Amino acid sequence: MTNNIFSMMLVLNNTNTQSVTFLLTGIPGLKATQVWVSIPFCLLYAIALSGNSMILLVVLREHSLHEPMYYFLAMLSATDLSLSLCTLSTTLGVLWFEAREINLSACIAQMFFLHGFTFMESGVLLAMAFDRFVAICNPLRYTTILTNARIALIGVIVLIKNVAVMVPVALFVKRLSFCKSLVLSHSYCYHVDVIQLSCTDNRINNILGLFTIFFTAGLDFHCILLSYILIIRSVLSIASSEEQKKAFNTCISHIGAVAIFYIPLISLSLVRRYGRSAPPFVHTIMANVFLLIPPVLNPIIYSVKTKQIRKAIMKVLIQKKCQI
Question: Per its UniProt record, what InterPro entries does this chain match (predicted)?
Answer without folding.
Answer: GPCR_Rhodpsn, GPCR_Rhodpsn_7TM, Olfact_rcpt, OR51/52/56-like
